[in-house]
Write a structure and sequence with these properties.
globular, 3 helices, OsmC/Ohr_fam, OsmC/Ohrsf, KH_dom-like_a/b, 3-stranded mixed sheet, alpha+beta, 138 residues, Organic hydroperoxide resistance protein
Length: 138
């Protein structure tokens, strides 16, 4: 494990019932019902939660890179994250795509921001080498 100088934040949740249960954060700000993907359940699923967390973090990392490069992030910047739950030979795994939209920026500037964000974003670091990831500039 990496040596830590300072813990900036710890997210805490309590989950019961697995994929068909519920999850609540310790501060009560997150309180969701969970449903297995592809079912008629009323809740979200871990893949959607992971996609939301990763895309939010990645967009934050783009903002950090933009400040360092002295570039303004377009107000309509967006990330469409897709996280697939896959099955091969009885083994489950994830794969993902981040489709990044930075309208109005020159392609090379937008690409530099995406590449810098990929090196900074904790989700990208955590998944690097562990799951197949494609990052598209759209």
């Amino acid at each position: 494990m990496t040596q830590t100088d300072k813990v900036l934040y710890t997210g805490k949740t309590h989950t019961t019932g697995g994929r068909d249960g519920a999850s609540r954060s310790s501060d009560g700000r997150l309180d969701v019902k969970l449903s297995s993907p592809g079912t008629s359940g009323a809740g979200t699923n871990p893949e959607q939660l992971f996609a939301a967390g990763w895309s939010a973090c990645f967009e934050g990392a783009i903002g950090l890179a933009a400040r360092k490069m002295k570039v303004a992030v377009p107000p309509d910047a967006a990330i469409d994250a897709e996280v697939d739950l896959c099955l091969v030979d009885g083994a489950y795994f994830l794969q993902a795509r981040l489709n990044v939209s930075l309208p109005g920026l020159e392609h090379d500037v937008a690409q530099a921001l995406v590449e810098a964000a990929d090196q900074t974003c904790p989700y990208s670091k955590a998944t690097r080498g562990n799951i197949d990831v494609v990052i598209n500039l759209v």
